[in-house]
Design brief:
Structural class: mainly beta
Distance between the termini: 102 Å
Shape: elongated
CATH class of the largest domain: Mainly Beta
Strand content: 35-45%
CATH topology of the largest domain: Immunoglobulin-like
Mean pLDDT: 90
Length: 527
């Protein structure tokens, strides 16, 4: 072959090879559509149902996701049915016969999805009646956490027949109808008969469809009528008390002359030792509503000491090998321009050597005022702090002497005061025409972890929140029925609802050296 012909043949071969190169297929667009129901046997919304199984067909292969949690059958069957995937069909087999003359709703939640991409078929319901008609009434509403109005999802919302209902029914029997609250706390019970029910919601932690002690609960006081289509119910859920308020959980004495009481939500009345003219009492607030009450008495008792508490007598044994509780101080770390400096003592002290309690401004010692709390556990230092100034508060050795004749060790804190331009002020004007005696106003952090100011609304309409550090704040209102200065939950047995909580929708972003005037109309908030 000539050289020209060889080049021509090689070029044609290269073109042929290039055309024959294998390229992977792109596969097309991603499937984002959920499966479609193509058949229902027996047909959906059918009266006179008498089958022992249901078959639902789809246009593609499907998977079943967490049926025990997602699929809700209302009213509940005696035994949960069996679920089986066969090809493109879902087969439901009943293990106990449905009740006669009853309309059932099977809500599949998010349990049905296609096999490849996991696209979920949401809000699919299958309805059937073993009677001659389908019930069509419904009840709807929302569940919120009573203490902060946050929505609660996955709560059991239950209806119990009025006939034969008692406080123990929720513990002993399953509800006649139930549903699960959704993401935003909303719920709806479908296909209900025209009857009266008790409406109760709870966190079914062990998934037995019965209320168990200490599960969160919410309830409506009066019976609900399913034919009342105009009412949308808001249920306030709360965690019930572990014990009766004021109950003594434990008592002991492990140190000389100190007696410890662990009390659930103590209020007002506290233990008092018998035949003791002098004693000291200190209450430490616990994180789980169980507070520690420490009582210090006079000379050491040989065997035990008895106390009066409410209408009871309580005797606490003392150990023979008791020891003295150690004395230590807790000094306030962050001091603002309007603060008094607090020193907390672990044991009662009424001997204070003020010459060993020294306040230094820059480099000079300063005179100050001080207050000893009547419990002898707290001392407060009062002083008019200057702006942009360095301070030191020194507690020298043996400054405090406790009831055990123990002396404190040296300790000190240092800080530099801020200037007025570092703070913000909120000037609030409240408008309310109703009964405001129990309205507790709280200025809180945006995350609700700290309460900065707290007061009861009275005839005064304008309030100043001063010396506020820059940050985000909001206002919370508690309808404090018992005026104990805090929010209280409910009591199902006593049919007592938790105290109502309201929030102003505005969040205040306060900046340094900035005054904000704001008007708050409670008439639109409290309804």
């Amino acid at each position: 072959m000539s050289r020209l012909n060889i080049i021509l043949v090689l070029g044609i071969a290269a073109i042929i090879c290039g055309c024959a190169q294998v390229v992977a297929p792109t596969g097309g667009a991603k499937d984002t559509q959920p499966p479609v129901v193509t058949k229902e046997v027996p047909s959906n919304a059918k009266a006179g149902f008498n089958s022992n199984k249901i078959v639902v067909g789809f246009d593609e292969y499907i998977q079943l996701i967490s049926p025990e949690e997602q699929i809700v059958i209302s009213p509940p069957l005696e035994e949960k049915p069996e679920y089986e995937i066969s090809g493109k069909n879902l087969i439901i087999r009943f293990r106990s016969a449905p009740k006669p003359n009853t309309t059932y709703t099977i809500n599949f939640g998010n349990s049905l999805a296609d096999n490849h991409e996991g696209n979920v078929l949401g809000d699919y319901r299958y309805v059937f009646s073993t009677g001659s008609t389908i019930d069509t009434l419904n009840i709807s509403g929302k569940i919120v956490w009573a203490e902060n109005n946050e929505p609660k999802k996955n709560m059991n919302v239950c209806l119990y027949p009025i006939n034969g209902f008692s406080d123990s029914s929720i513990y002993l029997t399953k509800p006649a109808y139930f549903a699960k609250s959704k993401e935003a706390g909303f719920f709806r019970l479908y296909n209900l008969p025209d009857k009266k029910f008790r409406l109760i919601a709870f966190a079914d932690d062990n998934k037995n469809l019965k209320y168990d002690k200490n599960e969160a609960i919410a309830f409506v006081n009066n019976p609900v009528l399913t034919s009342d289509t105009s009412t949308r119910y808001e249920l306030k859920m709360y965690q019930p008390d572990l014990y009766e308020a004021g109950k003594i959980i434990d008592t002991f004495s492990r140190e000389e002359n100190r007696f410890t009481f662990l009390i659930y939500k103590p209020s007002g009345v506290l233990p008092i030792p018998l035949n003791k003219s002098v004693f000291f009492l200190r209450k430490m607030v616990g994180k789980s509503d169980i507070d520690s009450v420490f009582i210090y008495t006079g000379p050491k008792e040989k065997d035990s000491l008895c106390f009066t508490y409410n209408t009871d007598f309580v005797c606490v044994k003392t150990k023979k090998s008791t020891k003295k509780p150690s004395l230590y101080l807790d000094m306030q770390k962050n001091v603002e321009l309007n603060d008094t400096v607090t020193i907390s003592l672990s044991n009662p002290c009424f001997n204070i050597d003020t010459s060993k309690l020294v306040l230094i401004e820059d480099t000079l010692n300063q005179a100050y005022k001080y207050i000893i709390d009547t419990s002898y556990f707290v001392i407060k230092i009062i002083y008019k702090w200057k702006e942009n100034t360095k301070y030191t508060l020194q507690v020298k050795d043996s400054c405090f002497k406790d009831i055990y004749n123990q002396y404190s060790k040296k300790q000190s804190i240092n800080w530099v005061s801020k200037n007025l331009k570092s703070y913000s002020t909120l000037m609030a004007k409240f408008i309310y025409y109703g009964n405001n005696q129990n309205l507790l106003i709280q200025l809180i952090s945006a995350d609700e972890k700290k309460v900065y100011k707290s007061f009861y609304l009275n005839n005064q309409s304008e309030y100043f929140f001063d010396y506020l550090l820059p940050g985000t704040y909001k206002l919370k209102v508690i309808d404090d029925r018992n005026r104990n200065g805090k929010w209280d939950n409910g009591n199902f047995i006593m049919q007592q609802q938790p105290e109502n909580v309201f929030y102003f929708p505005e969040i205040f972003n306060l900046r340094a050296f900035w005054d904000l005037e704001q008007q708050f109309d409670l008439n639109n908030l409290i309804k």
